[in-house]
Amino acid sequence: MKPKMGFRIAPAVLILTVLMLVFDRERICMMTLIAAFLHELGHLSAAGALGIPLRSLRFGFLGARMDVRGRMLSYSEEWLLCAAGPAWSLLSSAFAAVFWQVSSDARVFSCASLVLGLLNLLPIRSFDGGRMTECAIRFFAGDVWADRIMRPLSLIFLFLLWACSVYFLLRAGDGLSLFCFSMSLLLRFFDGEDSNFV
C-alpha cells in the first residue's frame, strides 16, 4: 500500500488567511491565494512527473515546504522541482493576461502570479531560485563553493529586495507588505533561524 502524503498548515497561517479572506472586499487576497496554490501545484506536478515520493507538504508564513520520502534528490531533480513552481506562476500570469480587458480579477491574478513567479526566481537560498542556483553551483563547482557563494549572494538579493520595498514605501506610499516580508527575511538571515540561510 502506497503511504499517504501528510499535509500541515501552521495554525497562525490558517487564522491569518481566514481573516484576510473575510476582509478581502476587492478579492485581492483570494486571487493571490489562487496564484500561490497554482505555484505549489506546479511543484507537486513536477514531483509526480519525476516520480519523487513526498512525505509531507507544510505551509508556513513564507510559503510551502515539501519533504521527500526515502531518498535524496539528484541536483537535476531538485532543480526541476524548484523550477516548476515559478514556471507555473509565469505561465498562469500570461494566460490570465489574455483576459485583462474582461475581468479585474484576471488583472489581479495575473499580477499576483507574475510577482510570485519572479520573486521566487531570486537567488535567495530559501527561495526556488536560490535552491536552483545552489544546485547548479554544487553540480559544477562542488559543495564548498556553493556554501561560500550562496550566503553572500542571498544577503545581496535580500538587501536589494528590502531596498525596493523601502523605495515603494517612500515613493508610492504603498508596499508595506513587501517591506514587512523583506524585513522578516533579513531578520531570519541574521538570526540563523532558517536552516536554509546557514
Mind explaining what this structure looks like?
The protein is globular, with a radius of gyration of 18 Å. Helix 2 (28-50) packs antiparallel against helix 3, helix 2 (28-50) crosses helix 4 (104-120) and helix 3 packs antiparallel against helix 5 (128-141). The chain has helices at residues 11-22, 28-50, 75-97, 104-120, 128-141, 143-171, 176-191, and strands spanning 6-9, 54-60, 63-68. The model is unreliable at 194-198 (pLDDT under 50). The chain has a three-stranded mixed β-sheet with strand order 1-2-3. The chain is built from seven helices and three strands, in the order E-H-H-E-E-H-H-H-H-H. It is 68% helix and 9% strand. The chain is mainly α and 198 residues long.
Topology:
Blueprint: E1 6-9, H1 11-22, H2 28-50, E2 54-60, E3 63-68, H3 75-97, H4 104-120, H5 128-141, H6 143-171, H7 176-191
Parallel strand pairs: 1-2
Antiparallel strand pairs: 2-3
Strand content: 5-15%
Q: Can you summarize the main beta sheet?
A: 3 strands, mixed
**Class computed from helices, strands and strand pairing:** mainly alpha
Give the topology string: H per helix, E per strand: EHHEEHHHHH
Quantity of strands, as a count: 3
The chain-level mean pLDDT equals: 87
- The number of distinct helices, counting runs of at least 4 residues, comes to 7
Please bin the fraction of helical residues. 55-70%
What overall form do the CA principal axes indicate? globular
Using the CA coordinates, give the radius of gyration: 18 Å
- How far is it from the N-terminal to the C-terminal residue, by CA? 38 Å
